[in-house]
C-alpha cells in the first residue's frame, strides 16, 4: 500500500514547487497531476517537477482523448519517459463534464472511444506499428519514433462499464474523489481483474484534511465535496454511503457563484462519509477504511498549502 498526492493545477508555480517539496520531504514518491482545462498544464508541470526532484514519479491524470488525441497523449508520456526513464505513468479519462461543456465537446457513448484510445496508447508504448481504425479515433501505419516504453497505462472510471474496461484494457484504475468506502468497494468489484494480471493498480483519490479542530478540518473540504458530489454520476456513491444530498440545489449554488450556500449543504455526516478529515487519529482511521476496501494507493487531494500537506502526511506517518 502507498500514499500519493494529487495536484489539480489551480495553484501558481511557486505554490506547486513548495507543495511538491513538502510532499517529497514527507516521503511521498508519486504526485498525480490533474488535467483541468484553463488551469496549469500537467505535462509541462511534470517535466519541471521531475527535473527538480530526482526521486519523484508523476502520473498524468486524467488526460481526455476528446481533448488530446491518444497519439499525442502517448507522445507526451513517451517523451517524458525519454528524459526521465521509468518515472511517468499515463491515466486516461473521459474528462470533467464542466470542462467539456466549456469547450462544447460532446461525449456520447464514451465506452467505445475510450477503448480505442487505450488500444492506441498500448500499441504505441509497445513499440508496435499501430493499427487502430476506430469509430472515433484512428491511428494507423506509424510507430513512436522513440521506440517502446514501459509506461503504466491507467483509466479513470466510475460507471460499471468503464470500470470493467479498466480491468480488461488498462494497468490500473483511478477512482474519483469524494467516493465513500462502500462505493470504493463496489467499484473495485466491477473492475474484476483476473488474478493472472499481477501488478494491476487500484488507486483512489481521497480528499484529506487534518486539524486538531474538527470544524477547521471539515470546512477545508466542504467546497471540493460540493463541487464533486453534485455530479449525477455520484448518485450511486451517495446511495451506497447512505448520504442524503440535494445535488440539484448544490449544482445551482455552485453555478451561480454561491459557494457558501453550497458549503452549507455539505453536512458533517457527508464529510465523514466522503473524505478523510478531522483529527490526526480520525484521519488515520478513515484512511485505513479506504485501504481495507481494496485501494492499493490512496491519492490524497485538496491540500492547498505546504503546511496542509505536511500536517496530513505527519498524521499518516505517526502510525505507519
Give a description of the structure.
It is a single chain. The protein has 320 residues and is of the alpha/beta class. The chain has a single domain (2-207, 279-317), classed as TIM Barrel, CATH 3.20.20. It contains 14 helices and eleven strands. It has helices spanning 13-25, 42-52, 70-83, 97-102, 111-125, 160-169, 181-191, 214-229, 235-241, 247-255, 259-265, 268-274, 280-292, 306-317; strands at 2-7, 30-34, 57-63, 88-92, 130-133, 138-142, 153-156, 172-175, 201-210, 276-278, 297-301. The strands form two sheets. Strands 1-2-3-4-7-8-9-11 form an eight-stranded parallel barrel, surrounded by nine helices. Strands 5-6 form a two-stranded antiparallel ribbon. Helix 5 runs parallel beside helix 6 (160-169), helix 7 (181-191) packs across helix 9 and helix 13 packs across helix 14 (306-317). The protein is globular and about 60 Å long. The N and C termini lie close together (11 Å). The relative contact order is 0.13. The model has no long low-confidence stretch (mean pLDDT 95).
Summarize the structure.
By secondary structure, this protein is an alpha/beta fold. Helix content is 47%, strand content 18%.
